[in-house]
Amino acid sequence: VMAVTTMETFSIGDYVVFATMLAVSTIIGLYFAIRDRRKKNTEEYLLAGRSMNPIPVAFSLSVSFMSAVTVLGTPVEVYRFGTMYAWLILGMLIALIVTSEVYIPVFYNMGLTTVYEYLEKRFNRAVRLTATFLFMVQTILYGGVVIYAPSLALSSVTGFNLWASVVSTGAVCILYSCLGGLKGVIWTDALQAVVMLVGFISILIQGSIKLGGFSNAWNLSKMGGRIEFGNFDTDPRVRHSFWSMNVGSTITILGLYAVNQSQVQRYLSCRSTKDAKKAALLNWIGLLLLNGLAIMTGIVLYAYYKDCDPLTTGQVQNKDAQMQLLPAMVLEIFKDNPGMPGVFLSSVFSGSLSTVSTAITALASVTVHDFLKPIFPWSEKTYAYISMGLVIFYGLLLMLFAYLASKLGAILQAAISILGLLGGPLVGLFSIGILFPFVNSIGALCGVVVGIAMNVWVFVGSKSYPPPAKFANALPLSCAVSSNFVANSSQAMTTTAFGQLINTTTLSPVLAPTRPPVADLYAMSYQYYSAFGFCFVVVVGVIVSLATG
């Protein structure tokens, strides 16, 4: 039985490795600040002068998608629910092909600075500002959780000071994003992608050695029911099936890659449409590597704890217990290798840094171009300095929301889940603009409002009538599961690769006899939320536009 008896902590060597990663990130920002000091304009600062090579942009796209929450959460997803999650990688490829062929050419060829400019040109200013506002609220709330959740998980397991990690993450992000602008952020992301890959590979190698080889870990996971790729059930209530992971998740990923300012800003920084499309498709290779390694790490994680699950024994506990599983294993397997847990620590925080720096540069960009420039005729140099100030402001704001996340806990996580439901309706809004020439601004606004309302309705309904356990496919854990654990696990938060915290609410042991027929709709897999909202935006947008001329 492999169980942690005494909790390991980080050594001085681990802190040195972590500090080195933070220092190099800062130096990259400083380098671009000095090199481009004479080019003071928003085009250079917020769009890297539209001069970026597609390879670093592809790296940046990959890691801004893979947050620290995902680095810690994806292996646990496999640990609890098995490998059906791997089909997401195919969903990503479909979404990125659609992004590169349908959305990127439109946005790039219009010479946009923010993606929401398109909505004003296509519809009107009200539609543009609605979408911008939704993006800003979603990004600020999520950014706080991305800083706080991994810091809490690591501090609980390792004794690494919680607020030291929150402040160091936020401060370094603000520093290199402010100094280097988007160019600094993209090159730092490229470094962080390498750190994340090294982190996963080192865990896989060491974990496999401890278990007698990866093939042995695979066999142990197979015996535990974790290896599954053949669930083709078309029932939309099944949490993870081939269809939910491809049809459902494709719309969610389009929400992140096709119409989200954080990613579109990177396409617009490329030298041509061709380079932007190349960056989007090369990014899939990065996602394949990172997600593939995270899923393999999940297989090793299950095999390592197969005899006694730390969640059951209470060895890791509190509301983020699932996030602590991987750090607990890493400290154990590397206890005789000082410095190696520091590599893992660096890879987790690389996920945080890349996501947060992406968020604050995107927020600065939409504030300048969607709110300030249309009103105030200031010079480009003035706006460049304002952009730097906004990067600092939004960085501090995200740190404030990290503090609020610590106080609000489950309330904020529920807010993030609801905000995650905005992705599909926003894809629908841009899609009806691009694909239906007759759709007007009244139809567009009505569509997006109805789409979001329907998504929120289903999400709230799923809290009142939790889906039956049989659809969750939660796999058995090896220790005798205590009644206390079962009672609490319906409230467990699980993490999706979309960087949303979704309340799984999957273990309702008894079906209430009064369950209304609409409860079957509420039981829909969370993977379909985006597609559900998307369909309403398109249908309502088309009908209202035809009715109003």
What does this structure look like?
- The protein has one domain (12-35, 53-548): Up-down Bundle (Sodium/glucose cotransporter), CATH 1.20.1730.10.
- 70% of the residues lie in helices and 1% in strands.
- The protein has helices at 12-35, 42-47, 54-65, 68-81, 88-109, 117-122, 125-158, 162-210, 214-223, 242-257, 261-268, 273-304, 310-313, 325-333, 340-372, 380-408, 410-420, 423-435, 441-464, 483-489, 519-522, 529-548; strands at residues 493-495, 501-503.
- Strands 1-2 form a two-stranded antiparallel ribbon.
- It starts with 11 loop residues before the first helix and ends with a helix.
- Residues 1-6 and 480-512 have low confidence and may be disordered.
- One of its GO terms (molecular function) is symporter activity.
- Keywords: Cell membrane, Ion transport, Membrane, Sodium, Sodium transport, Transmembrane, Transmembrane helix, Transport.
- InterPro entries: Na/Glc_symporter_sf, Na/solute_symporter, Sodium:Solute_Symporter_SSF.
Please render the helix and strand layout as text.
Layout: H1 12-35, H2 42-47, H3 54-65, H4 68-81, H5 88-109, H6 117-122, H7 125-158, H8 162-210, H9 214-223, H10 242-257, H11 261-268, H12 273-304, H13 310-313, H14 325-333, H15 340-372, H16 380-408, H17 410-420, H18 423-435, H19 441-464, H20 483-489, E1 493-495, E2 501-503, H21 519-522, H22 529-548
Helix pairs in contact: 1-8, 1-15, 3-8, 3-11, 3-12, 3-15, 4-12, 4-15, 5-10, 5-12, 7-8, 7-15, 7-16, 7-17, 8-9, 8-12, 8-15, 8-16, 9-12, 10-18, 10-22, 11-15, 15-16, 18-19, 18-22, 19-22
Protein name: Sodium-coupled monocarboxylate transporter 1
Membrane topology: Multi-pass membrane protein
GO molecular function, one term: symporter activity
